[in-house]
Amino acid sequence: MYKKLILDAGIRMLHSGLTVETWGNISVRDPKSGLVYVTPSAMKYDDLCEDDIVVIHPDGTIAEGSRKPTIEKDLHLGIYRTRPEINAVVHTHPVYSQVFAVLREDIPPIIDEAAQILGGTVRCAEYALPGSPELAKYCMEALGKTGRVCLLANHGAVCLGADMEAAFKAAAVLEMTAQIYQMTRSIGKPVVLDYALVAVMFDFASHHYGQGNTKNITPGGSC
Ligand SMILES: [Zn+2]
């Protein structure tokens, strides 16, 4: 089940413009066993099969698989170690998010979707080489205790979720926010949302929004 989830996520990431070629990587954690399923290093997403997915113990040792895991496996494992509520991580290389990663600028909450899903300012991590322990460290610093996404300087983005669907939603909202931020800055001065309202929207979207509860007509949800 988790191997198929990774295969489908790889194809989705590639064909939704969140990366090109073999860049980026994806993981999912089985919350019951603690095992982490990751993409292999430098293989085309369209060509992957279930045997190519690498299964890793939380300490980084290989549990299953003959391929080399993604070089960013320590970044994924570090996130799972410190964020028990997170079970999926998507590392993307999308164009507009990278515009701000190259500028090494944070992205403020400028649209309601960013407030609801990302919860506040998206931090840009310090630069470090791909696959290095420093990159994992800087990424976790930029995410903090509650961040859903962060930028990696001159490199890409890291997007987290309680499950794969939530991680992809965060990735899509980040890229849309970055695109709108770039466009609005090119013709004017974007107005950043009031942070008190951002907190209200994030709480609502996290705990009350959806068909399964009765509070979804309260202001603050998405429409
Ligand atoms: Zn990368």
In words, what does this structure look like?
It is a single chain. The protein is an alpha+beta fold and 223 residues long. The chain has a single domain, classed as Class II aldolase/adducin N-terminal domain (L-fuculose-1-phosphate Aldolase, 3-Layer(aba) Sandwich), CATH 3.40.225.10. The protein is 39% helix and 14% strand. The protein is built from 7 helices and 8 strands. Strands 4-3-2-1-5-8-7-6 form an 8-stranded mixed beta sheet, with helices on both faces. A hairpin with a 3-residue loop joins strand 7 and strand 8. The longest helix has 24 residues. The radius of gyration is 17 Å and the shape is globular. The chain starts with a helix and ends in a 16-residue tail after the last helix. The structure holds zinc ion. Zinc ion binds next to loops.
Can you lay out the helices and strands and say which pair or pack?
Layout: H1 2-15, E1 25-29, E2 36-38, E3 54-56, E4 62-64, H2 73-82, E5 88-92, H3 95-103, H4 112-118, E6 124-125, H5 133-143, E7 149-152, E8 156-161, H6 164-187, H7 195-207
Helix pairs in contact: 2-5, 3-6, 4-6, 4-7
The site of zinc ion has 7 residues, from loops.
